[in-house]
Amino acid sequence: MAARPRIKDVAEYAGVSPKTVSNVINDFEHVSEQTRAAVREAIDALGYRVNIAGRQLRQGRTGMITLAVPELDVAYFSELAKHVMAEADRRGRTVLLHQTGAVRERELAALRGFDTQFSDGVILSPLALLPHDLATRDRRLPVVLLGERSVEGTDHVGIDNERAARDATEHLLARGRRRIAVIGGAVRGRQGTDRLRTDGYREALKAAGLPFDAGLVVPVEAYHWQDGARAATALMQRAAPPDALLCLNDHMALGALRALHELGRSVPGDLDVVGFDDIEASRFSVPSLTTVAPDKREIARAAVALLLERIDGPDGGPLQDHVAGHRVVVRESSGG
Question: Given CA atoms 326, 147, 152, 167 in this order, what sign does their dihedral have?
Answer without folding.
Answer: positive
